[in-house]
Amino acid sequence: MNIQFQYPQALYLLGAIPLFILLYISYRIWKKRSVAKIGDAALVYRLMGNHSRSKTAAKFFLVCAAFALGCVALANPRKPDTSSDEAKSGIDVMFALDVSNSMLATDVQPSRLEKARQLLLTLVDKMPTNRIGLVVFAGKSYLQMPLTLDHNAAKMFISSANTSAVPIQGTVMADALDRCNHGFDEQNPRFKTVILVSDGETHDEGAIDKAKELAQRGVMINTVGVGSPQGAAIIDTATHKPKLDEGGEVVVSRLNEQILQEIAKSATGAYFHLDDVSATANGVLQQYVGIEKKPLADISLMNFKTFYWCAAAPMLLFLLFDVFFSDRKRRKA
Asked: Which residues, other chains included, contact 51 with Cβ-Cβ below 8 Å and sequence gap of 6+?
């Protein structure tokens, strides 16, 4: 990446140099006329024999050069640190994690929710240069963590996601997708994708339309189904016993793959059934192999190497040289 200036407005001060030169020339003309008024110019200059006009001019240009270098130092030339995560190319990924009570079912060991968390943590480790955000949802969705390159924070939020994070029960995938969409920075050209992990147990018909809307905005949605078609009993978080319906029957939660498949298909993504965590993670990542990776457009998030000292050091040398450089002529032996 090319050198850029953190404070380019400081370079406007360079416009003062032509003014300094104009003032210096005006001073020289004024001095020449003043000498002429005194008497014969050649005689006057001989009387001022210990003064060197060329050295005076050299001292002036030394000061001008120091001023120019000071302006450059003040503008702070810099370039992005290519070793930092911010400067590395990647994509923006929003995780949408279902934390409804049905995710506590144990048809997947140790539970659907724990298996889903294991998958997301694995994906974080396999996405070192991607920004990651987290939305949790049940009967309502919440942006738990905005897009960030702080993957340690991402792991912390994922590990702590549980059914108590959303007090309203249900599975509103349309709202979760909308929340993910609002979590993206539309001004940033990086590729955007949603990875939705759920058991799909919902009658949210608006989820398909919302997926199509995100697809029109260039957002890819990949879905991961966790659970089994046979299902398992939902554990009541209050009693820690199987939940019963109004008729006293055990409530069984089953994986609904159809809606998850339709959401993925509507947004140019793919559906994956979560069996083996590593294999599923690799399958999801395979979706992004041909995607163009870009560095962050927001330079405020990048780390930079600064080079102001390259201008400040010679500036100080020029000023010191000007102080000790005499404008008097050398006496002839």
From this structure: 327, 328, 329
